[in-house]
Design a protein that fits this description.
By secondary structure, this protein is an alpha+beta fold. The chain is built from 2 helices and 2 strands. It has a domain of 45 residues. This is Peroxiredoxin-like 2A.
Length: 77
């Protein structure tokens, strides 16, 4: 995302939301790497949930993570 990320409205909205909620961090590190969340099932279930950040501060929905985690079936030995 590099420099274009600083000109996106959503990035600034996410920054102010985190600031209002008391986020405190050292803000050190790569800074240009977007993250993601995967829920992977056992055995051949594969990926049950995939969330990739599209812009800085893009959050995954907690209910969707919990729903995907509940779908994980135990693997037979």
């Amino acid at each position: 995302m590099m420099l274009s990320g600083f000109f996106r409205l959503g990035v600034w909205q996410n920054f102010f939301r985190a600031w209002r909620n008391g986020y405190s961090g050292n803000l050190e590190g790569e800074g240009f790497t977007l993250g993601g969340v995967y829920v992977i099932g056992a055995g051949r279930q594969g990926v049950l949930l995939e969330h990739r950040e599209k812009e800085f501060g893009d959050k995954v929905s907690l209910p969707s993570v919990l729903e995907a985690a509940e779908k994980i079936k135990p693997q037979a030995s």
